[in-house]
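Please, structure for the following, as tokens.
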Amino acid sequence: MKRNWFDKKVLILGLSKSGMAAAEYLSSKGADCYITEKKDYEEKMSSDLARMESLGIKVEFGRHSEEFLEGVYLAVTSPGIAPAAEIFSRLKEKKIPVVSEIELAFKETGVPFVAITGTNGKTTTTMLTAAVLSSEYKAFECGNIGIPPTSLLSESEADYYVCEVSSFQLQYSKCFRPQIAVWMNFTPDHIDWHGGLENYFAAKASLFAEDKMPAFAVFNALDERVYRFAQSYNGEKFYFGKEFEKNCAYIKDRAIYFKRKPDEEEKIIDLDQIQLVGEHNYQNVMASVICAKLVGISNEHISAAIKEFAPPEHRCEYVGTIQGKLVYNDSKATNPEASIFALKSFSGKTVTLIAGGRDKNTDLTQMCNVMKECVHDVVLLGEAKERFETEFRRLGYNNILIADSFNEAVDKAFELQNEVVLLSPACASFDMFSGYEERGRVFKDYVLSKK
């Protein structure tokens, strides 16, 4: 239900993209908005600061002052702020409710949400689902993908918001209730942020809580932990990855099929018509197919939209054939599980893997086992290279080269006589870059200079 925001004081935690979108929206509705940013002011923030101040939005840096917290009606948090941050205990003491920007958008609109969460694959699935739904409706991708849903609330003609939802956002989304909720997979990640693996799982699982049960829930039948959770889920559910008697999408005879009722199988698309590479991407497609069928998209339009959909940037993105090598940019792979998905896409080819970056201290056993099957050589770099080398050798993988710089890693990869050069770091990028996007762009620019 929409609120009357006139003269209400709202505190925005963080000068982030989602925080600024929330502030702009609320300010347009009459709220008195304050943004408190714990980081010190930097020159790169100047344009954002100027835009906020031009709208009458107050901003502070380097602290969370008592002045900004006084008399606050509601706080909207940015997803990067961990639950253990001191600001939350202060807000709790003052009995100030805290919501995510996604929850704020949900409460302010009657447009139904399709929410997609998971450790890996959610961005691709969000983009693909939005593209398929757009074949018959006006659907907008948003959320953790980089487009705050509050920035779309002026789109009065929207039929659906297809929203990528991270565990960070779900942590403060107590009432968010999408029409369709999709759980792609679950593997260890963001453990420090959540304070433990089970807290991370609980944040994901909260999307399917009984008090906010979606109309339809979609689960990955190939993910053991997600499938086990789904068995105890009491709402209407669909599975992708395996064939069941009903309510499923699955692969048979090198094609994707959908089944809503027993003995009513529908062929959607042949696998060789899909531009996305690898088994993990077929899972993404199956999840999107279920969402599309649930909102009534025709099979013809589903198939056509999937055929046209190209891999998003930095996600197993084909860069080109350079010096006779197939080059792929998978910079978005910031954990071992994501890299495993990529590696399995190149079965039957000789692969040079470039890995390393800022270490998340995740277990490397499964990744190493896959590397033994799929990777001829690995070039390691960044802060993680010493631990990765030690662990890989301990686990029996020894075709390892070490690089002292990003360009050196690429050069060494091109010196090897393998068919594929794959950047799939299994690490965060912050030891060398501002984010995985910059890392991917630098990689592409450098390898293309070798043409």
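The two ends are 56 Å apart (CA to CA). The first helix runs from residue 17 to 28.
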